[in-house]
């Protein structure tokens, strides 16, 4: 809750007039507690999860040749009923696992210094903090993901996520409840190390969720803006991990590819790419598909 009774009082404290964004923030947050603001994350995550995958679902059900040529595993089509069941199961997880986790973790959010006050952070500050969050989460998740592919971790926890050998967007957070807790640690580590404004905290979870949905979409569109991001894995990169399945010891990265490259856990993927490239060159422009895995 903001410690100002009015916009004028806030301006006097800052020594300047509030910006338009700060005025909007004051009007929205002045009478809301910090706990309520921090727990907005579950609302945003549920909204993003419900809306962002819909275009991918529509494209899959449409089965237009224009879009199907970009499907990574074109031989596998998930029925509409299974897509709906996936959405239902994940939404239950979000409401009954992620939601309570947000509530009980609020003291930690407060303790590390995530704040709700004025002034609002600059665009540059938000961008710098988000970069730290992505890098920290990516590195931490890489090792957690490798652990989950050991025999015990996979059989007891991670095999739930690998139910879909050909991922669909709704299945991005299709996880065992224990994996949600494990990966929640990685997601919170960046904000704990470099705490910022709660708006940055919201934006981090929204962007990370959107990235995961796109990565699990099952489609590799050449016009995707994420292809401009250096070292970004993307849908094809992570799809290979699901395609190999439970025996996969490749492509563990959640966002970027540098960990897999440094620690040599992308060798299978790179060998597959080279083999498919050689096959493509050999058939002089024939279809570049092998076992349903697409080579760009």
UniProtKB/TrEMBL annotation:
| One GO term (biological process) | lipid biosynthetic process
- Residue ranges of every copy of the Fatty acid hydroxylase domain listed in the record: 131-265
- Record has S-adenosyl-L-methionine as a keyword: no
Cellular compartments annotated: Membrane
Report one GO cellular component.
Answer: membrane
Concerning Pfam families, the annotation shows: FA_hydroxylase
User: Which spans are transmembrane here?
Assistant: 42-62, 180-205
Q: Under what name is this protein listed?
A: Fatty acid hydroxylase domain-containing protein
Per the UniProt record, the source organism is Linum trigynum
């Amino acid at each position: 809750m903001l410690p100002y009774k009015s916009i004028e009082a806030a301006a006097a404290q800052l020594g300047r007039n509030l910006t338009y964004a700060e005025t909007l923030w004051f009007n929205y947050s002045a009478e809301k507690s910090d706990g309520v603001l921090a727990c907005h994350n579950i609302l945003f995550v549920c909204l993003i999860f419900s809306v962002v995958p819909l275009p991918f679902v529509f494209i899959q059900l449409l089965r237009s040749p224009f879009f199907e040529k970009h499907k990574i595993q074109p031989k596998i089509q998930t029925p509409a009923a299974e897509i709906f069941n996936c959405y239902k199961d994940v939404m239950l997880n979000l409401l009954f696992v992620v939601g309570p986790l947000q509530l009980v973790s609020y003291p930690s959010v407060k303790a590390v210094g995530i704040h709700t006050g004025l002034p609002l952070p600059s665009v540059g500050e938000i961008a710098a903090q988000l970069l730290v969050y992505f890098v920290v989460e990516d590195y931490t998740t890489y090792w957690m993901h490798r652990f989950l592919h050991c025999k015990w971790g996979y059989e007891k926890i991670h095999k739930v996520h690998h139910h879909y050998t050909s991922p669909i967007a709704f299945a991005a957070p299709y996880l065992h409840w224990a994996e949600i807790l494990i990966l929640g640690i990685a997601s919170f580590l960046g904000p704990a190390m470099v705490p910022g404004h709660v708006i940055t905290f919201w934006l981090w979870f929204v962007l990370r969720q959107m990235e995961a949905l796109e990565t699990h979409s099952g489609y590799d569109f050449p016009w995707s803006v994420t292809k401009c991001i250096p070292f970004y894995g993307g849908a094809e990169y992570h799809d290979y991990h699901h395609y190999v399945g439970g025996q996969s010891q490749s492509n563990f990265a959640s966002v970027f590819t540098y960990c897999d490259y440094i620690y040599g856990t992308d060798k299978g993927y790179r060998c597959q790419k080279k083999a498919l490239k050689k096959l493509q060159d050999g058939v002089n422009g024939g279809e570049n598909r092998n076992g349903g895995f697409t080579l760009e």
